[in-house]
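User: I'm putting together notes for a lab meeting next week and I want to include a structural view of one of the chains we've been expressing. I don't have a solved structure, so I'd like a prediction I can at least talk through. The sequence is below, exactly as it appears in our construct file.
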Amino acid sequence: MPDGEGNMHTVDLLQPVDEELLRDIALNPANNQYLLFTRRNRRSSQSLVMNNANSIRNSNFNANHPTVVVVHGWLSNQRTDINPTIRDAYLNKGEANVIVMCWRRLALSYYPTAVRGVPDVGRGLGQFLNFLHTVTGQGFNRMHLVGFSLGAHVVGNAGRELRGRVARVTGLDPAGPLWQYNTNRLRGSDGGYVEAIHTDGGIAGLGIGSAIANADFFPNGGNSQPGCYTSLCNHNRAWEFFASTVTRNHLVARQCSNSAQVSSNTCRGSNFNMGNDDLNKSGSGLFRVNTGRRYPF
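Assistant: Thanks for the context. Below is the predicted structure for the 297-residue chain, given as structure tokens.
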């Protein structure tokens, strides 16, 4: 499995979990950090603190602007590439509250421990967003939760904590190991509209290769990506594609009747744009889109 810097690590999926860390994570959801970026503070974050209303009132958070929460994956933190890439895509386009959630305390633990703690981290995020809603009055229909790899399951659990009331939940190549039959994984009821972008779903892939959301996109078939020669590159393409679609909304997929059509590139259904920042987006089914080898794809 890769870390946030692109280094690969051997993982023992049967390794005993750190029960003491998990108990602390469950009891203290405020372990998560929430770092706000807006057009008034593009590079220097403002820290929003759970149960501290002044940290929100004294920040640049604007309830009239849409909110997007970006959640990193395993062995990562607030500085991992996904965060500034998606942040800049939003802020270069228009006004937004971009909240980078850092959950490194658990994310830096051994993989099986991190997997076990994902539901509690997600619940903590959901509780924070409910607090944000209470303080600012911003409706959940103005919120979009975006998570990569393990972070995709984090945002799923956050949406579940809010009873599916957030406008959108997007899973970027949701993590596969230990998640295929895990009831805590991302699912279609976690938001008003739930999308998953699958880019490394092969037999030995880092992501889930099967449909788990309302709309599931399989770029280039969902297993290997043009210009990539490693599983890590395939995996990271999910957030690279998403950031590009926030800017351009240009990757148009075709609906597929089944997974065989996805694999054989014979989908002939209706068009549906992958990714983007549309809070009113809706749709369901399997979709394939073919992309280029390099940005903007």
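A couple of points you could mention at the meeting. The domain at 19-211+229-249 is CATH 3.40.50.1820 (Rossmann fold). The first strand starts at residue 33 and ends at 38.

User: Perfect, that's what I needed.
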